[in-house]
Amino acid sequence: QVQLVESGGGLVQAGGSLRLSCAASGDTTCISAMGWYRQAPGKEGEIVAPVTSGGSANYADSVKGRFTISRDNAKNTLYLQMSSLKPEDTAVYYCKAEINCYRLGYLEVWGQGTLVTVSS
Question: 41-61: buried (b, 16+ CB within 10 Å) or exposed (e) per residue?
Answer without folding.
Answer: eeeeeeebbbbeeeeebebee
